[in-house]
């Protein structure tokens, strides 16, 4: 699965995207796996209310299922316009 | 619907004229243009990041929603990314309708959704500091007003 | 405030660009353009009459009111009179503000007041009939919304 | 005093402006004087709810005083924009 990071999430984790081998059932499970990896992941995901997630390029929730998902992206609230 | 995500500058006048020329039978055209502000007087530039692939899809979904809600002839969204200086134009939307109320409301709706639901992030860079622009509660509140 | 009452056409793109270039420190520019509609498919032209002397005074008063109510950088009103054909541009307004909400609301306010409080009258002329456009109750209602 | 007519009021009365010698105290008194002149005036002013008035180029009311006024204009509700 491709996992993408944007804005300060990208900066905190230190890379824009990576391939992740996971059998996580939901976004929340994936987040738990990532946090367990390293301190920089743990720090980036420490406050989920400050984060948004997109599954296959659609805005989603942290309890959304990941079955069949090819791409998951994490980022702060958007500030376009 | 004309959706463009680009690094290059755009020409407001040329885009407004071209959009108007493409409409027929419309009584009202509204444009909105967003411009980089140097709030603290120290901004060197702004860096706008986006999510290639998702961005155009999200903007198209927002525009489709606007067309479903209002009686629109056409709509245009242009949003830049990359490096922008103070007073540079960041983005514009245009709407046309037979009625002025529809054109105005659809343009406001596009702006409100684009602001909080399209995957763009702004970073302000000054000589000695930089920081990501925080989302504002009032922008989230604006969306709730459209859902009532 | 830039108020112009004229018989000659105007160029939306050129006016929008020139207006934008005159603003500094503004984050938002809104334009509205009104266009002649051929409602019945029989319109030959529209004749717009106005009250020279009062017209510019009334438009200026409306724009001053908008500047008093919202945090505006600048405003522009152009309104044509005389003979106009289908799809000709009748008028435009532009507003700039630090905030998008102010720019949008002020432009809507200018339009609502200009529509019912500036001394213009439209006559539609077809091959075999002509008639003055009647004021609509909903335009009067729109003013009440701003007075609440 | 200059009296001006616009749109269908102008068409019905048949002229865009005229000088009127009057000692009318209010707009309503002036309207009464004009209506008494000729049928075309009477017809033009038959429904005051369909008319608007400006005194010295300011929107006004039919009971407004005319003392000192130099210019009074009658017209239908405006349809700009």
From TrEMBL, chains A, D:
Tell me which domain of life the UniProt entry assigns to the organism this sequence originates from.
Bacteria
Q: Which Pfam families does the entry mention?
A: ThiS
> Which Gene3D superfamilies does this one have?
3.10.20.30
Q: What is this protein called?
A: Molybdopterin converting factor subunit 1
Annotated source species: Pelagivirga sediminicola
UniProtKB/TrEMBL annotation, chains B, C:
Q: In Gene Ontology terms, what is one molecular function of this protein?
A: molybdopterin synthase activity
Query: Which pathway does the protein contribute to?
Result: Cofactor biosynthesis; molybdopterin biosynthesis
Q: What class of enzyme is it?
A: transferase
Which reactions is this enzyme annotated as catalysing? 2 [molybdopterin-synthase sulfur-carrier protein]-C-terminal-Gly-aminoethanethioate + cyclic pyranopterin phosphate + H2O = molybdopterin + 2 [molybdopterin-synthase sulfur-carrier protein]-C-terminal Gly-Gly + 2 H(+)
Q: What does this protein do?
A: Converts molybdopterin precursor Z into molybdopterin. This requires the incorporation of two sulfur atoms into precursor Z to generate a dithiolene group. The sulfur is provided by MoaD.
One of the GO BP terms on file = Mo-molybdopterin cofactor biosynthetic process
Protein name, as recorded: Molybdopterin synthase catalytic subunit
| Recorded superkingdom | Bacteria
EC number(s) reported in the record: 2.8.1.12
Q: Which UniProt keywords apply?
A: Molybdenum cofactor biosynthesis
Family per record: Belongs to the MoaE family.
Complex formation: Heterotetramer of 2 MoaD subunits and 2 MoaE subunits. Also stable as homodimer. The enzyme changes between these two forms during catalysis.
Answer yes or no on keyword Hydrolase.
Answer: no
Q: Does the keyword Hydrolase apply?
A: no
């Amino acid at each position: 699965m491709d996992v993408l990071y944007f804005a300060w999430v990208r900066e905190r984790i230190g890379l824009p995207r990576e391939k992740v081998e996971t059998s996580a059932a939901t976004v929340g499970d994936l987040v738990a796996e990532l946090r367990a990896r390293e301190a920089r992941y743990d720090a980036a995901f420490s406050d989920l209310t400050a984060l948004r997630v997109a599954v296959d390029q659609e805005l989603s929730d942290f309890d959304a299922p990941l079955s069949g998902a090819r791409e998951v992206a994490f980022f702060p609230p958007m500030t376009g316009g | 619907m004309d959706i463009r995500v680009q690094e290059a500058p755009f020409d407001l006048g040329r885009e407004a004229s071209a959009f108007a020329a493409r409409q027929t039978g419309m009584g009202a055209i509204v444009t909105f243009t967003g411009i980089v502000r140097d709030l603290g007087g120290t901004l060197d530039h702004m860096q706008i990041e986006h999510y290639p692939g998702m961005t155009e899809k999200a903007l198209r979904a927002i525009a489709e929603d606007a067309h479903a809600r209002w009686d629109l002839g056409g709509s245009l969204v242009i949003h830049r990314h990359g490096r922008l200086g103070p007073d540079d134009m960041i983005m514009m939307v245009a709407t046309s309708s037979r009625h002025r109320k529809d054109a105005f409301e659809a343009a406001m709706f596009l702006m409100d959704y684009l602001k909080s639901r399209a995957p763009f992030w702004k970073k302000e860079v000054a000589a000695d500091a930089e920081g990501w622009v925080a989302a504002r509660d009032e922008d989230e509140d604006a969306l709730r007003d459209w859902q009532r």
